[in-house]
Amino acid sequence: MGSGVAGDQSSRGFAQRSAPGPATAAVWPNAASIERDGAALAAKAASQLWSAECDIDWRLAPVRPWWLPRRNHVMLASQFLHGERAARSACEALLPLLPDGALRLALATQITDEARHCEAYERYLARLGDISPRRTLLADAFSRIADWKGPAGGLVLATHVVLESEALAIQQDLVRDFPCPILQRICQLAGRDESRHLALGRILLKAADLAARPIDERLALHHALHRLWQDCAQAVVEDHGVILWRAVPRSRLDAGWRRLQVTFRRVGLIGHGEARAFGAAEAAVPAG
After folding, report:
1. Per-residue confidence (pLDDT) for residue 136, from 0 to 100
2. How far is the C-alpha of 176 from the C-alpha of 27, rounded, in Å?
3. Cβ count near 61 (within 10 Å)
4. CA dihedral 54, 120, 73, 91 (to 10 degrees)
5. What 3-state class would DSSP assign to 183?
6. How many C-alpha atoms does 193 have within 13 Å on its Cβ side?
7. Which of 27, 200, 210, 235 is a plausible cystine mate for 268, CB 3.0–4.6 Å?
8. Please, are residues 75 and 128 in contact by the beta-carbon 8 Å criterion?
9. Would you state the pLDDT for residue 9?
10. Phi, psi at 176, each rounded to 5°
11. Is residue 48 helix, strand or coil?
12. Confidence at residue 108, expressed as pLDDT on a 0 to 100 scale
């Protein structure tokens, strides 16, 4: 794989691929065999419903650590909100691509979850009295997801693997020891939902049968996901600067991408014996 592969990938990012076809067996070849799993997740979501108004104690006052300026406190909470909005929009784009049945119902419950998360963060930011705009890098990353015109499995990887389990996990790390009881409660409730969303992503990727896609298509998708990861991770670092660099060091970001490779192999994006080819293609593409 040399510069030819790199050049091919560079011209085939999230927004440059051909439009996905209808929700047919060709798009989701294994869907019928895992309908029961989708139904179980939808039922679990119904049993774990919570209310942003009633299940969070809004009588409490927001708290921030002494070392964190108010501006960074607002930025932290704002990027949570922007991430939830992006996840909701991406799921709404994915919904019509799914076949009718339990998988679509399970994704519809996730959209409801994301809307509830947005409401909780909007209420929290109202208590702080301010909201920060999306970082430019995050806006670019979210736009690439919104404009995705490649295989439906790629959209699942972007939303349920990169956005859900990794980019937002960085901010979850920051909040783990954050002293604000309101923010901790929001993250506790939202985190329970996120575990279901990750499970749904694994189910959808089984339905998509990524391993059966041509390797050039998977290489292009891998490159697009790397760009998405870089933008989301770098946006978090730029948001919090040196103040929170101790919480999100470069090694943490690099480890996150390496961990994603394990997931990519597990779901079939990187096939058996293909790790070297994917690594060479990634190394051939300039960062940024």
Report:
1. 75
2. 39
3. 9
4. 160
5. helix
6. 27
7. 210
8. no
9. 36
10. -55, -40
11. coil
12. 96
Q: What does each of the 288 residues of the chain score in pLDDT, given as a tens digit?
A: 333 333 333 333 444 333 344 445 678 988 888 899 999 999 999 999 999 999 999 999 999 988 888 988 898 889 889 889 988 998 998 999 898 899 999 999 999 999 999 999 999 999 999 999 887 777 777 787 877 777 888 889 988 888 776 656 655 666 677 889 999 899 889 988 988 999 999 999 999 999 999 999 999 999 988 888 877 777 666 655 544 444 555 666 677 788 889 999 999 999 999 999 998 888 776 655
Tokens 């784009």: give the residue: 93
The pLDDT of residue 24 is 55
Rounded Cα distance between 58 and 74, Å, is 17
Q: Residue 3: left if φ>0, alpha if ψ -120 to 50, beta else—which one?
A: alpha
- The closest alpha carbon to 9, from 272, 223, 278, belongs to 223
* Amino acid occupying residue 74: V
What is the gyration radius of the CA atoms in the chain, in angstroms?
19
Spans of all domains in the chain: 32-47+66-283
The structure tokens listed for 74 are 């607002």
Tokens of 67: 């070392």
Scanning the structure block, which residue is given the tokens 């009633």?
54
Q: Which two tokens stand for residue 85?
A: 């909005």
Give the CA count within 13 Å in the CB-facing half-sphere of 259.
13
User: Of the candidates 145, 140, 137, 138, which has an alpha carbon nearest to the alpha carbon of residue 15?
Assistant: 145
Measure CA 81 to chain center: 13
3-state SS of 210-265 is: HHHCCHHHHHHHHHHHHHHHHHHHHHHHHHHHHHCCCCCCHHHHHHHHHHHHHHHH
